[in-house]
Amino acid sequence: MQVESNIFKVGVNIPPEFLQTLMDSINDNMESLYPLYDRTFNYWPVKGTWRPLPGSTPYNGTIGKIVVADEIRTEFTVREKDLKKVLEIIRDVHPYQEPVIDVIPMIEWKSITPSDAD
Predict the structure, then answer these.
(1) For the residues 57-83, what does the mean pLDDT come to?
(2) Domain residue ranges of the chain, discontinuous segments joined by +
(3) What are the residues whose beta carbons fall under 8 Å from the beta carbon of 79, sequence distance 6 or more?
(4) Which listed residue, of 20, 78, 79, 96, carries a Cα 20 to 30 Å from 38's Cα?
């Protein structure tokens, strides 16, 4: 089966106090993949850990000391045409100097099994 996709799943961990702003900002700047719905995100609590190295300017933590923090993992799907803009929004809203952002190519399920809504 030959399936082309211009859909990506984006995942990022963020401090809980930034989650709503992040979701609102992304939603306002991308086309929804789901007819008749927008602001479609998944999120759940996670623990993040890191050690700021010399030269860094950590939002949370002290140079050379391991940090363990409560974060929220959020994931959503985005069209390729909106991907760059969405990644820039994450960088603008996210307080970390180096947020970890996962971008995963996906196959849109409707390209395999169309829904009744199409």
Answers:
(1) 97
(2) 7-43+76-111
(3) 6, 7, 8, 30, 31, 33
(4) 96
Residue 68: helix, strand or coil by DSSP? strand
Helix (H) or strand (E) holding 47: strand 42-50
Check if the beta carbon of residue 6 is closer than 8 Å to that of residue 80.
yes
CB half-sphere exposure, 45, CA atoms < 13 A:
3
The one-letter amino acid at 1: M
C-alpha distances in Å from residue 36, one per residue of 3, 5, 9, 54, 74: 25, 21, 20, 48, 21
The pTM is what?
0.87
Residue 19 has pLDDT above 80, yes or no: yes
Write the CATH number of the domain with boundaries 7-43+76-111.
Answer: 3.30.70
Degrees to nearest 5, angle at CA 81 with 20 and 1 = 110
- Which pair of structure tokens corresponds to residue 83? 């991907």
Asked if residue 79 lies in contact with residue 6, where contact means CB atoms within 8 angstroms, the answer is yes
